[in-house]
Amino acid sequence: MTPLLEVNALVKRFAHPRGVIERLQGKPAGAVQAVSGVSLTIAANETLGLVGESGCGKSTVGRCILRLERPDAGSIRLAGEDISQLAEPRLRPLRRSLQVVFQDPYASLNPRRTVGEAVAEPLRNFTALRGTALRDEVGRLFERVGLRRDQLDRFPHEFSGGQRQRICIARAIGPRPALIILDEPVSALDVSIQAQVVNLLMDLQEEFSLSYLFIAHDLAVVRHISRRIAVMYLGQIVETGPRDSVFARPRHPYTAALLSAAPILDPVKRAAARRIILAGDLPSPSNPPSGCRFHTRCPIAQPVCASTPPPEVEAAPGHVAACHFPL
Amino acid sequence: MMSVAAPLLEIDGLSVEFRSREGTVRAVDDVSLTLNAGEIVALVGESGSGKSVTSLAAMRLIPDPPGRIVGGRILLDGLNLASLDERAMRRVRGKDMAMIFQDPMSSLNPVLTVGQQIGEAIRLHEAGGDDAVRARIIDMLQIVRIPQADMRIDQYPHQLSGGMRQRIMIAMALSCRPRVLIADEPTTALDVTIQAQILALLRDLRERLGTAILLITHDLGVVAENADRVIVLYGGRKVEEAPVEALIQNPRHPYTRGLIGSMPHLDSVLTADTRARLVEIRGSVPPDAGSLPGCGFAARCDLADEHCRAHRPPLTEVGPGRRSACWKHDQLERAGT
Description:
The structure holds two protein chains of two kinds. Chain A is α/β, with parallel strands linked by helices. Chain A has twelve helices and twelve strands. Chain A has helices spanning 20-24, 58-65, 88-91, 115-126, 131-144, 161-173, 191-208, 219-225, 243-248, 253-261, 267-272, 303-307; strands spanning 5-16, 30-42, 47-51, 73-78, 81-82, 98-101, 179-183, 211-216, 228-233, 236-242, 312-316, 319-322. An eight-stranded mixed sheet of chain A has the order 6-7-8-3-9-10-12-11, sandwiched between helices. In chain A, helix 4 (115-126) crosses helix 5 (131-144), helix 4 (115-126) packs parallel to helix 6 and helix 5 packs across helix 6 (161-173). Chain A starts with a strand and ends in a 5-residue tail after the last strand. In chain A, 44% of the residues are buried. Helix content of chain B is 32%, strand content 23%. In chain B, the strands form two sheets. Chain B has an eight-stranded mixed sheet, with helices on both faces. Chain B has a four-stranded antiparallel sheet with strand order 2-1-4-5. In chain B, a hairpin with a 2-residue loop joins strand 4 and strand 5 (79-80). The relative contact order of chain B is 0.14. The chains are: A alpha/beta, B alpha/beta.
């Protein structure tokens, strides 16, 4: 069966702007390779959790799939069709099946338009609904995400962060997409609100048979909502596999470090946990380390790690780690 | 050693109000806390809980107008900061009590080198020649584990990573060896691996320098691993106070219980291929929670009844070092665990 989404060897570079002095010195324009050969698949009705720290390229992967960016190489197949190089007119109808919810619900709603209009816009673009029928549908969507029909004519500033994220979710599910890119959808929200939104997303997935690409840095949230996990480091996927397999036994030292860095509430389990504190910071993506990109921070790195890119090792069914010495 | 009776920092019955055209909002209502030397106390709450206002008030950094401390005392080693004038307060800030904020980029001056910024407090509060000050700065950079300190000292904030900037902030705050450090969401803007580094550094500084730390955070995971005692704020009021293990294992306020339940854990049990729903706290913080006649949490609480909505629950002793502001705290007592 073809997966709903199949991304293969995706590459995205951004030109590095030169400052005045660098231009006067005649230095060549550099490039940051934000995404360096990322491959992933998402099946219908599945959630893939894409995890990594800031600057690892996870949001750029999402923006390429949405075609908010044009990839420099690689393919993005949505239901079999490669959309990676499609021009805008041919992309337009596809946008119906590809929706997005961003992290910041304050920045994703136009402050001068009512929230009802925000949710109605994709419906007006992609469906024949007009007038009362359109308003009815928007009302239904509002109720579905836990808001009230009588809030349609209000403006974004009248809503809390959690409510605004519900509005963005209503806007995303309106045109009945197949895939929603969720880019840190709950990380700006308070803990108690975060739980509400995560539960809502899981309910909607079931009800509307949605697939999710859930991009986040919070491993505990990702674990709750995802069926499979992909871990990114400096533009590459270092480990991917079924959720339980990855969390129970991470094979890549970076995944292991990420998992061990997350705080543990239970003091008994905490005492038993082995804590790996990584030294140093994320290297610059404009000049990534040779060989395995993680070798500069890896607690078990060997000389070969600095010279040779690691092979992909299938450690368990569907569970792959790119490491010379998988755990 | 400090005697048990005299805490280093004592906030007693603090109330802070903000005035606007729409009226007066009480952001902090009768909040008390103590912080002993070498102790880490966490102040926990969601947005609007009053945790940041409490810490800003302790530093006397509430802009007046629109804000005002309308009641209470802030005692640092017996000296009431609430009654100091700005000049006297300036001698305390940075010297006896310092603060670090969530976003190191917006707290650092982009046109000054890190050395100039760390040196500012040292020059302000202590005598010494340029060479002595420079040596002190390099020393501070090494304390916060910045590699190549003699090179970094002449760099500008934009040349540093987020984790490194937060280390600079900590170095600035600690440059005059304050006895109290207020850390307002110090790791919220950082990635987990960097967060782990910074928290380990704060714990280590407490050990080595005996700095007392008031840790303001919304993250109970961070609290569980770093604090000795916890104070939970909701709608500007203190709702629970307890030693950290007791609070996590047996919360005695429905809000704390909800907060712990709504956190996804890495160690919770999920069955294969099904996804467990998270416990929700329904609704959101009402904007007027601090001025309601009854319990500010009643509207979101499963246990609440008429009495809760009409009468404000007093902070009641519910165990050794434990207080809860809930009429039904005894219903929350759990056997075991």
